Amino acid sequence: MKKTRGFGLFGIIVIIIITALVSSIATGVIMLNNNSIGLNGSSVDLSNDKDLQEFIEVYETLITKYYEDIDKEGLLDAAKDGMSEYLGDKYTTYLDDSEYNKILDELSGTYSGIGISINNNNIVSVTPLSPADKAGILAGDTILTINGTNVQTMDSDSIGALIKGNSSKIVNIQVSRNNEIYNYTLEKEELINPTVTHAKLDGTSIGYIYIKSFSQNLGTQVSNALKDLESKGINSLIIDVRDNAGGYLSAAEETASLFLEENKIIYSLKTSNSKFTYSDETEEKRTYPIVVLMNNNSASASEILAAALKDSYGATLVGSKSYGKGKVQQVVDSFKFTSAEWLTPGGICIDGIGLSPDYNVIYGDTETYDTQINKAIELLQ
């Protein structure tokens, strides 16, 4: 856990495990919608593609004449793996169903659950107005059983899987509180997956927003956080994307648009034969000072947001050099492939290089001190 001197950030930067969600996405994911402007369609006439017809002929021969039975799905999966290996791009790979669904679950922005965050079998927090909250479950409760299964020695992922993996919407949960045992029967609901945590730092006019990942509804979550912070009188802001491995490109674009002036460049995409520049098309903007916190695990969409805020807003970057993921992926039939490079507003591809901070601050913390956050506070006060 990271804390900061006297500013009331207890628990804010904890990576919350929400009942049903796995803990992290593949490093540096930038998911691009397949209908994105300029990146859809194909100029290849496959009906007259001689090489493809040869592949189909070999495939047909194998499944009809090979001396043993062939798993057709496995054969095609192997072909996809072969294409990925041939391209030699570490971001281009065939995803099996579990891997693909894992990414989609983490970036969906919602989840089916009961609204508890857990550390092993201890309940860390309860989402307001969730089934758990309405039933009376409290932070600090200890989970004993889920649907009759003893979970006292299970880790957070295993307990979350019990809740999520149950096909029934009903979850029977037994908890211990102050040496008393309580039994609850809850019905799972579709809940917002909180990827944003925010606070006004005690004794200051500085707002703080931590972004866990770039989920589909991130823009809305950041917008709501800004409205709350601004209603409390903030005049500057820290945006923390440390250990944020990315997510949807559209989420980075929507979030940047909350701050930039209209027509300011957010990023560009460079494909094999074209370049497309994406600028802020909204009237909404901010003008107060911003510091972005990043580290070596800040990748892809995190880097897009950080670069846009630095180049087109004038934000200050604090921390350590970012991961350096300058490529964008699309997914077709579980095949994730690189379709473009992204460029900063200044036209730079940071792939393999990363973004350098304006203030390189080695991370260190105690129970009350986070060196990188405190440098950001120093710059904003």
Give the helix/strand class.
alpha/beta
CATH architecture of the largest domain: Alpha-Beta Complex
Question: What's the total number of strands?
Answer: 21
- SSE order, one letter for each helix or strand: EHHEHEEEHEEHEEEEEHEEHEEEHEEEEH
What's the alpha carbon Rg, rounded to whole Å? 23 Å
Shape: flat
Mean pLDDT: 86
Strand content: 25-35%
Kindly give the count of domains.
Answer: 2
**Number of H/I helices:** 9
Report on this model:
By secondary structure, this protein is an alpha/beta fold. The protein has two domains: 29-34 and 194-380, 2-enoyl-CoA Hydratase, Chain A, domain 1 (Alpha-Beta Complex); 110-192, Pdz3 Domain (Roll). Helices cover 27% and strands 27% of the residues. It is built from nine helices and 21 strands. The chain has helices at residues 50-65, 72-87, 97-107, 131-135, 156-165, 218-231, 249-257, 301-313, 371-380; strands at residues 29-31, 93-94, 110-113, 116-119, 122-126, 142-146, 149-150, 170-177, 180-187, 189-192, 196-200, 206-211, 236-240, 246-248, 265-270, 275-279, 290-294, 316-319, 327-332, 335-343, 359-360. A six-stranded mixed sheet has the order 11-12-13-17-18-21, sandwiched between helices. Strands 2, 15, 16, 19 and 20 form a five-stranded antiparallel sheet that branches. Helix 6 links the parallel strand 12 and strand 13. It is flat and about 75 Å long. The relative contact order is 0.16. Mean pLDDT is 86; it is low at 1-28 and 34-42.
